[in-house]
Amino acid sequence: MILNCTKHGQEERGKPGLLIVHGLYGSARNWGVVAKRLSDARHVVAVDVRNHGSSPWFETHSYHDMADDLADSITSLGGSWDVLGHSMGGKAAMVLALTSPELVNRLMVADIAPVKYGHSQIQHINSMKGVDVSLVKNRSDVANQLSGTIDDMSLISFFAQSFDMREKVWRLNLDTLAREMPKILDFPYLETEYSKPALFLSGANSDYVKREHREIIRRLFPASQFAKIPGTGHWLHSEKPREFEAAIRVWLG
Known about the structure:
Layout: E1 5-8, E2 18-21, H1 32-38, E3 44-47, H2 63-77, E4 81-86, H3 88-99, E5 104-110, H4 122-129, H5 139-146, H6 153-160, E6 163-164, E7 169-170, H7 174-179, H8 181-185, E8 198-203, H9 214-220, E9 224-229, H10 236-239, H11 241-252
Parallel strand pairs: 2-3, 2-4, 4-5, 5-8, 8-9
Antiparallel strand pairs: 1-3, 6-7
């Protein structure tokens, strides 16, 4: 399935394009600033993964599903691409690299490891489902209702971006995401490896990528390198976008 995508910049001769894959509850729109800035040097495409944004909705949301969607999208674009994925998108990008390595020129994974996590994100689905859309006149109304169950203003703003003000609906398949949450938290067992360069870029204040995760990362991605951005947590690209951008530029350069 070919995903909805937002394109930035032009194709550069001799340079692979950069495909950006967002995390859970996100969209290509969230990466607009970073994608636009990186497009001064290469063609950048940000996608909406299945059940998010303007991409189609399905009953399933496994990492093999998402990797197949990414493979179809890259095939439609042509060539081999550098792929950058954050959180859930990072896991999908890893599965893509492990199952279709010919499509991935280089891999960049932002603040996630190929392991099973124990913290569910189901509470945020419950918060979004709890919004009374009949009372929504503007995006601030969405944020105000979310603030009843969510304390973090940055998360409230992030979730509110996925509410379609015209149609008064969430651009997230909340039912499927809730049902498939165990798969989202997990990571499929794969015996293959991706031998091309892979960067694992983490927030220094985040606990998503721990030192004990490096063994499994190196087994699957033997050419992996590790870097951290000081003073950032899991949302490193939004907390310190310039530093994040600089790190990606240096590594791709």
